[in-house]
Design a protein that fits this description.
This protein is α/β, with parallel strands linked by helices. It has helices at about 10-20, 35-50, 90-100, 115-120, 125-140, 160-170, 190-200; strands spanning about 1-5, 25-30, 55-65, 105-110, 150. The protein contains seven helices and five strands, in the order βαβαβαβααβαα. Helix 1 (about 10-20) packs across helix 6. The protein is globular.
Length: about 210
């Protein structure tokens, strides 16, 4: 089961999983104020990958932390707080683990990279290992196969992920990384800037951005 947000990282993980497992589920979470473009990107990517089992959950009580200090100029580093959700991965992966046990799925795959884990500690491999251990300790089905959270991109920076996405044939044009919800990527939020810089450093155009 792949946690699919609609971004480049999770899309790469979806295609990575399809090359390694005979059957792949995808799960996506619609929390409050989640952008329509991100939602549609997740569904389009799943369809393009021929994922027949797509779980789409409504979580209206969850929202990103957007209450930035009034009048304060946020640094590029601090701007990541706009995408912060308290206990995000604790909730999302717990839900995924719930479905995994009911559907006899042993591997849950997330698209967190080295950039993510620096700021969001709940995106690190160490955090996921702790969460997996807790789940398996409490599972009444643990006499069968234990559940495992896999982070294929955890040691990769953006450039290497892009190269892998190209190699796997990921439909990069369908992915959505922007923190705004316009018709196209804004090109100015921290996610867009990082993505554009990575593509340019590889000497290739990002097909998700208009030329």
């Amino acid at each position: 089961m792949v946690l699919l947000s609609g971004g480049l990282d999770s899309a790469t993980c979806l295609y990575w999983a399809k090359n390694r497992f005979p059957f792949v589920y995808a799960i996506t979470f619609n929390y409050k104020d989640r952008g329509k473009r991100e939602k549609s990107a997740a569904l389009e990517i799943a369809k393009n990958a021929n994922i027949t089992e797509m779980i789409e959950l409504e979580l209206p009580f969850i929202r990103e932390h957007l209450q930035l200090t009034s009048g304060k100029i946020m640094s590029e580093y601090d701007s990541r707080l706009a995408a912060y959700i308290p206990a995000r991965n604790l909730m999302f992966y717990s839900i995924a683990l719930y479905y995994a046990e009911n559907l006899s799925i042993t591997s849950i795959i997330g698209g967190h990279n080295r950039h993510d884990a620096v700021f969001f500690k709940d995106a690190s491999k160490n955090y996921m290992q702790k969460l997996t251990r807790l789940f398996n300790e409490g599972s009444k089905m643990r006499h069968k196969e234990s559940k495992n959270i896999i982070l294929p991109l955890s040691n990769m920076y953006r450039k290497k992920i892009i190269a892998l996405a190209v190699k796997l044939g990921v439909p990069i044009k369908l992915t959505w990384s922007c923190h705004n919800d316009g018709y196209t990527h804004c090109g100015s939020c921290y996610a867009c800037v990082e993505r554009l810089q990575s593509f340019r450093s590889l000497g290739i155009n990002d097909p998700a951005f208009p030329v």
